[in-house]
């Protein structure tokens, strides 16, 4: 594991652990629409280092561990950090826009940033295959996972499924897509078909945002 991925994981663990044991600290730095609209913008960043519980923390950090070094191997540490933190902020801003009238809406987690890293990895490794604990012998193409998760995030936002920040996931994924193209434009020639496949639903989301009430 690269040092930068390790440092991000350690920062998440320490910050989250502090939040687990200090409700005042947790409430001060979590994402909350009303507080952010009043100018407490640090929450857009700090909320990405807090988690609800150990399961939430472990899932996000394991995912970062599995995908982080793959992205670094191609784009390097500076671009990896740009993708990570830009997607963290993009996920927060997307959530802020979507929940702008829900002043008490709150959320925590690195999911937006992690989704951005996942999307970057999928675009940089067009032949990527994924499998999951419940289906260990089934390899799922990376772009199928990306498309599926994007659609699920939109559905989850509309139906308010679970205590999950679906809007941050969607914002992070879109951010990862756009930023990866901006930083590594060569994917438009080497992986053009994959870029188009992943881009179609993103374009449709923006075209039909009003109908989807996004």
Automatic annotation (TrEMBL):
GO biological process: proteolysis
Record localization: Membrane
GO molecular function, a single term: peptidase activity
Database matches in Pfam families: Rhomboid
Top EC category: hydrolase
Main subcellular location of this protein, as a coarse class: membrane
SUPFAM superfamilies: Rhomboid-like
UniProt-listed Enzyme Commission number(s): 3.4.21.105
Family: Belongs to the peptidase S54 family.
Entry protein name: Rhomboid family intramembrane serine protease
Organism from which the protein derives: Urechidicola vernalis
């Amino acid at each position: 594991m690269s040092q930068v991925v390790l440092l991000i994981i350690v920062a998440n663990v320490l910050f989250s652990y502090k939040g687990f044991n200090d409700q005042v600290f947790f409430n001060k730095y979590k994402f909350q629409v009303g507080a952010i609209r009043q100018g407490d913008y640090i929450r857009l960043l700090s909320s990405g280092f807090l988690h609800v519980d150990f399961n939430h923390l472990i899932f996000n950090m394991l995912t970062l561990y599995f995908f982080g070094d793959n992205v670094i191997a191609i784009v390097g540490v500076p671009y990896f950090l740009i993708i990570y933190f830009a997607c963290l902020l993009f996920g927060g801003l997307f959530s802020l826009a979507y929940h702008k009238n829900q002043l008490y809406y709150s959320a925590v987690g690195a999911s937006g940033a992690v989704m951005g890293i996942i999307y970057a990895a999928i675009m940089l490794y067009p032949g990527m295959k994924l499998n999951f604990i419940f289906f260990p012998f089934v390899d799922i193409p990376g772009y199928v996972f990306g498309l599926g998760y994007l659609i699920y995030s939109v559905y989850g936002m509309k139906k308010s499924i679970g205590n999950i920040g679906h809007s941050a996931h969607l914002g992070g994924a879109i951010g990862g897509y756009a930023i990866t193209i901006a930083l590594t434009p060569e994917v438009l020639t080497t992986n053009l078909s994959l870029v188009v496949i992943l881009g179609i639903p993103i374009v449709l989301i923006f075209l039909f945002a009003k109908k989807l009430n996004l």
